[in-house]
Design a protein that fits this description.
Pfam families: tRNA_anti-codon. The chain has 341 residues and is α+β, with helices and mostly antiparallel strands. It is built from eleven helices and 13 strands. It is elongated, with a radius of gyration of 23 Å.
């Protein structure tokens, strides 16, 4: 249950721009007349709140009405991928996640590409190419960075940054960067918007966070129940046998390395075992029938079992670790499941 962060790509000079004054105002008026919980009901409810895909803005500047969007300038092609998965959170959720796993940002057992949160600026420092600031939301505080391009925007960016003073309530959209050595964790922002409607902070964002948390919790509970019924067995598209042949190797009835020969591997991966593991994982994911299962990925134990006739389990495990941390071509989705980037 991720939101498209393109839905947050509106003008940073207001909380919701023209989208706020037209469509969102309908939802506000309903809440005022029939109670806050009407926000969750009807065609203007929370599930439709972020479904305006015309506002997707992977580029740095997009015209919307009479205003414009200013996004961080150092995202390049990755911004489009990052903006496909955006989770409404509060700062306490981020801090708890980094406490339990300091090297990777996960919430609800999943790696999150980007987050959106609302808080107020408690301190800021403007440098030549970025603004460094700290934001709090009542549940905690975290550092944030926003890259700027004064050469492109000139006085416009100066006016925009001057509006983001200490005490200003803002919505951030960005990527959580875990801390290393003496550098603390921070949010690398690609959009900052000033919030002018207190309802946005006091009601709507809090409801969004609670709603998504509830949806994920239901999904996790459903997966746990399903795994319990299936005995935690991974269903392979072919048979895997535990028989031992005369050469002392395990025999897999249908799987062999010829199946993965045609799969392309990134150019920087040159080691044979790394190539084999990458191809095997890619092939296994392609064999999964549903998009939901493909998004969860394949268990590393399954890959180890498939390649046991050819490589030692420790070697395969080490290759999986290298592909994730060194080459960054695969990533862990949840509980030892891996997907290919």
């Amino acid at each position: 249950m991720f939101f498209s962060s393109g839905s947050f790509g509106e003008s940073p000079f207001s909380s919701r721009n023209e989208y706020s004054s037209s469509r969102a105002s309908t939802s506000v008026s309903k809440s005022e007349s029939s109670g806050t919980y009407s926000y969750l009901n009807g065609s203007d409810g929370i599930e439709n709140r972020w479904n305006n895909n015309t506002l997707v803005t992977p580029s740095r500047r997009v015209s919307i009405g009479n205003t414009s969007v200013i996004n961080s300038n150092s995202r390049g092609e990755n911004s489009n991928r990052m903006q496909r998965m955006c989770l409404p959170v509060n700062i306490a959720m981020i801090l708890r996640s980094l406490e339990s796993n300091p090297t990777a940002f996960k919430i609800f057992e999943r790696r999150i590409s980007s987050v959106t949160l609302i808080g107020w600026i408690t301190h800021r420092e403007i440098l030549a190419s970025r603004m460094i600031f700290r934001v709090s939301d009542g549940t905690g505080g975290i550092d944030a960075r926003f890259d700027i391009d004064s050469e492109t925007f000139g006085e416009e960016i100066n006016s925009y940054l001057d509006d983001l003073r200490e005490g200003t309530i803002v919505r951030l959209v960005g990527q959580v960067v875990p801390g290393k050595a003496d550098i603390s964790s921070y949010i690398s922002c690609y959009t900052i918007m000033k919030i002018t409607e207190m309802k946005e902070y006091a009601y709507y964002h809090q409801i969004e966070v609670a709603y998504v948390a509830n949806q994920f919790q239901q999904e996790i509970s459903g997966e746990e129940e399903s795994n319990s019924k299936e005995g935690n067995e991974y269903l392979s598209p072919y048979n895997i046998s535990d028989k031992i042949n005369h050469g002392g190797k395990q025999e897999n009835d249908d799987f062999d390395l010829h199946l993965i020969e045609s799969i392309k591997v990134p150019d920087d991966i040159i080691d044979h075992i790394h190539k084999t593991v990458y191809k095997t994982l890619s092939y296994e994911i392609s064999c999964l029938k549903s998009e939901e299962k493909k998004s969860i990925g394949v268990k590393k134990d399954h890959i180890i079992k498939l390649l046991k006739p050819y490589h030692e389990p420790g070697t395969v495990l080490s290759a999986i670790s290298d592909l994730e941390s060194k080459y960054a071509v695969i990533y862990e989705t949840m509980d030892g499941h891996y997907c290919v980037l």
